[in-house]
Amino acid sequence: MIPAPNMQTILFATDLGENTRVVFRMAVSQARRYNARLLILHVVEPLGSTGTAIIANYLSGMAADRINQDMAEEILEIMKQRVEIFTLEEMAAFGLDWTPVTETMVTAGNPAEEILETAKKCGAGMIVMGTSTRSFLGNALMGTTARRVSRHTPVPVLLVPMVEK
């Protein structure tokens, strides 16, 4: 018999996209259902090779590295504040006086890899995230990050579909 997953910790991974409120509410619902702590993770993708090359074209190597580092730290701090403000606003709008959110984390890197690593480190029993991106034909597709996370994690993943407006 396969043992039931340990639901003491639920990881909510967010890109702060248009479906974030729906996915957050589902994560809160699951955390309340299992009386679990809820961790929020936002991953900032690093500056791509084109952006790095543009900066390096105008500055020396050390200056470019310093600017990249300073910008990365500032962006991570800004995003952490945005996630925390979102959480407070959503909890108030949702009418909840108790929140299971115990930690907000913002990191830089490949989103799927960071989600998987964070879930492992924090012992998450479930990952909650949105599923969709849009194709040029307007069809909802499972996003690359959701697909990678669901393929490579040993814990259940609750994928919340894009809500049509």
Considering the chains and any ligands shown, give keywords for the structure:
165 residues; alpha/beta; two-stranded antiparallel sheet
Q: Can I get a quick summary?
A:
By secondary structure, the protein is an alpha/beta fold. The chain has helices at 20-34, 49-58, 61-94, 111-122, 144-152, and strands at 9-14, 37-44, 101-108, 126-130, 132-134, 140-142, 157-160.
Structure description:
With 165 residues, the chain is of the alpha/beta class. It has 5 helices and 7 strands, in the order βαβααβαβββαβ. The chain has helices at 20-34, 49-58, 61-94, 111-122, 144-152, and strands at residues 9-14, 37-44, 101-108, 126-130, 132-134, 140-142, 157-160. The chain has a 5-stranded parallel β-sheet with strand order 3-2-1-4-7, sandwiched between helices. A hairpin with a 5-residue loop joins strand 5 (132-134) and strand 6. The longest helix is centred in the middle third of the chain and has 34 residues, at 61-94. The protein is globular and about 55 Å long. Mean pLDDT is 80; it is low at 135-141.
